Amino acid sequence: MLPVFRNVERTSNDNGASATQLAEGNPPVDPLLWLTGAASDEPVNVPTIEASDSTFSDGSDLHEGKYFNTKKDLKRKLSYIAMKCNFEFQTRKSNRSLWVIEYIDPNCSWRLRTSKIVPESTKFVIRKYVGVHSCSLLNRNANHRQATYVVIGEQVAPQYVGVEKGPGPKGIQTFARTKLGAQISYYKAWRGRKHAHTLIRGLPEQSFHVLPSYFHMLEKLNLGTVTRIEVDGESRFKGFHYMRKVVEIDGTFLKGQYRGVLLVATAQDGNGQCYPLAWGIVDSENEDAWTWFLTQLKEVIGDTDELALISDRAPSIKKAISTIFEKAHHGACAWHVAQNIMNKFKCVDIMGSYWSAVNAYIFEDFTGYMIEISNRYPRVAEYLENEVGFEKWSRCHYPRLRYNITTTNMVESLNSMLVNASVRTRLVDPDRHDINL
């Protein structure tokens, strides 16, 4: 914004700019030519003007008699104007029916007085407004008090509608600097981002409150759906009788305000597609949590001799499965076994033989690959046979139909898909923009 200088003396020129026009602060068509005198051959008398002698307008559309629905709307508008014009104001008087503010420099003429239309109303009207600053330009400040995290969050909130992530704190800093004219700290940008999330997606407490209604609609609109709420919430979907009888289970950390762990059970249909069976939210990944989750899962899928459960070799999962599923067989994720081999024995060069043994259908082929491993790393062969057990990771030794499911890749893929949503443990009501589980 170009400040308008007062008390500039100049005779009329070929451009038609009279002394009266200049004195009133009305520049010719090109203000740059007017200031430099390049538009005319006549001499230009532009005295040295101190910053304290200048005036500038805030450039807003505010005027006396303008109405605002609430005092909050009025404050938001003024904060935005202050950020755009890089000036600060302070409150001189404020109560439920009155708000009087002025520039931080008491010698400046900028000020505003608003009050309620009537005491019973929430609407505020501008009673008196002086929008021209008579203070020093040196007082203008981009690091001002009106650039609060609430105002910043309100300005960036639209950028989080219908997207997974939206801008991070550094992106918000750039937005505030380029669009709002405000310099803000990383921490204020982070708080502004959090406030924007709340405006768009709601609070976690609100989501937990609507869980009963959400589950009711699931059961009503998806016949055969089973839902149950215990503590924070849990839901499971029927349909397993159409799936291959191999279930992968795993957990992933939630990163929202309440933390916790999301436990997931996934199956595979006859077309090789991933079919999520159940989700469970628990405080941590321990034996009690897995026992609770698997107990609920058993009610949905049952426990038969055909059933295979695949997971990593965490002791809490192993013990919970042996307690809840007496007929099903527990298999180990071959990828996790491979990671243990590389970390424990440092033998990456035999992984090709290991994976061949994992996928072998015929016992003779499996034996040949194990001989290769035993000849080079006897300790690895002993580990696979005695500590892990062939029946846990080998397809040909597995006592159930395992198909081509040798790892927990399906459930890991589901966790990967949910990684962005894992920071938001919330549901959103129909009036909002998205649903996050």
Give keywords.
five-stranded antiparallel beta sheet; 15 helices; single chain; alpha+beta; seven-stranded mixed beta sheet
Strand order of the largest sheet: 8-9-12-11-10-13-14
Task: Characterize the main sheet.
Answer: 7 strands, mixed
Compute the CA-based radius of gyration.
35 Å
Overall geometry comes to elongated
What does this structure look like?
The protein is an alpha+beta fold. It contains 15 helices and 14 strands. The strands form three sheets. The protein has a seven-stranded mixed β-sheet, sandwiched between helices. It has a five-stranded antiparallel β-sheet with strand order 2-6-5-4-3. Helix 10 (315-324) links the parallel strand 13 (308-311) and strand 14. The protein is elongated. The model is unreliable at 1-54, 231-238 and 428-437 (pLDDT under 50).
